[in-house]
Amino acid sequence: MRAPLPRLHAITDERIARRADLPEVARQLAAAGGANLALHARGRMLTGLKHYDLSFQLSNFPSPLFVNDRLDIAISLKAQGVQLGTGSLPVSAARQLDTTWWIGKSVHDLAEADAAKAEGADYLLVGPVYHTATHPDRPPLGLEALGRIARLGIPVIAIGGIDAERAKDVKAAGAYGAAAIRALWESADPEGAARWMLEELQ
Predict the structure, then answer these.
(1) Cβ contacts of residue 114 below 8 Å, gap of 6+?
(2) Cα 49 to Cα 170: distance, rounded to the nearest angstrom
(3) Cα separation of 139 and 131, whole Å?
(4) What domains can you pick out in the chain, each with its CATH number?
């Protein structure tokens, strides 16, 4: 039986992937979230070896490992979930590789969300909800649009400018959970930040 979908998702980027303190921050996040926090190995510009190394490091903690795009790495490390982007393999192809995965799809509007649901995604990573330094040129969706997507009836993980205070707002708008990069990995107190965000998402 598959474990429940985590409500909080700590997502890496290329810069975080190269940080010397990555294992220590991951340890603190996992201590706070346990099975209710997913550690996402993401790095679009990483080589295959670097992405594997990142994923391997994150697989050594009690929190579930989710791998973005690299399904070969997800298979080799027995990841609990995968996150598919616009240019990734279809959900149906990922499902054939491992029927136990949580398979998420990144979407940016209602039309993409509707298509991802029809494709069979288990959950949607929706954003950016707020303005974010990760995608400074992309206009934020806002809470109203997030709510419309949440009403499709598939679990929604909100991303983009999410911190503990905004986690409460996206939950109220209908999101199942939230994802963050800087608010978790760059916090002076990663364990405290993760605990606070999870409290707001319950």
Answers:
(1) 152
(2) 35
(3) 7
(4) 8-201 (3.20.20.70)
